[in-house]
Amino acid sequence: MLLVLLGLAFGLIMEVVIESLLTRLLFVVLAAAVGFWALNNVNADIGPRRPIPEVSSTSSTEIKKEQVQLEDVQLSQSGFGAYTLSGNVSNDSNSRLTIIDFQITLKDCRGSNCRIVGQEDTSASVDVPPQQMRAFGSAAISFNDLPDVGPARRRSYSYIITSLRGRPDTDRQHQANATAGIAVVSDR
Predict the structure, then answer these.
(1) Strand segments (E) across the chain
(2) Please, what are the domains in the chain?
(3) What pTM, to 2 d.p., does this model score?
(4) Residue 124 backbone dihedrals phi, psi, to 5 degrees
(5) Between 180 and 134, where is the model more confident?
(6) How far is the C-alpha of 1 from the C-alpha of 23, rounded, in Å?
(7) Looking at residue 49, what is its pLDDT?
């Protein structure tokens, strides 16, 4: 009888332990799946986005790098280990600036000796009329496998503009036509 009672008690304890382990395992797997999904969708989950203006190949306008000025540019951590590049952009061209493409380089430095630890491409969707300035913020950037910055090191970054896209400034053309007394029929 004692053996039967010990067997039942052992069976009950094992059922509780196994059920507890299965519950914990299920929780860990579910948490890992949610974390994996969040990391893969970090670009979609960071803040409101400005719509990317449609640019067709027939209406695309070249804007030269010399016609764009960037000010107060900073690289900031934006959550989930991602970064964003932000600042102000001045458009000195005669076209409306719509997209700025960047290459961002992260470096770890010890004294004057710097080593590249990350390099990624990103873009910022903007709507900057000719001869005006607007704020910009890039899409989220993930630098994978960044080493820890030790106490004797500092992290620095640099960026270059890789391309600029724009479109004709139809608002400006409409204003010029109105000033000249030309009637324009628009399909907008």
Answers:
(1) 68-79, 82-91, 95-110, 113-128, 132-137, 141-142, 154-168
(2) 45-167 (2.60.40)
(3) 0.59
(4) -125, 125
(5) 134
(6) 33
(7) 47
CA distance 185 to 162: 37
The Cα–Cα gap between 162 and 104 comes to 10
Q: Compute the distance between CA of residue 28 and CA of residue 85 in angstroms, rounded to an integer.
A: 34
Q: What are phi and psi of 21, to 5 degrees?
A: -65, -40
- Report residue 16's pLDDT band, with 50, 70 and 90 as the boundaries: low
Both tokens of 104, joined, read 């961002």
* Range of weakest confidence among 24-33, 108-117, 126-135: 24-33
**Which tokens in the block code for residue 123?**
């873009």
Alpha helical stretches, state H, the chain? 2-40, 42-45, 170-179
Identify whether the C-beta of residue 92 lies closer than 8 Å to the C-beta of residue 68. Answer: yes
For the chain, how big is the Rg over CA atoms in Å?
28
- Mind listing the pLDDT tens digit for each residue in 46-82? 444 445 444 444 456 789 999 999 999 999 988 777 8
Least confident of 12-16, 26-30, 78-82, 151-155: 26-30
Say which residues have a Cβ less than 8 Å from residue 126's Cβ, sequence separation at least 6.
50, 89, 97, 98, 99, 100, 134, 136
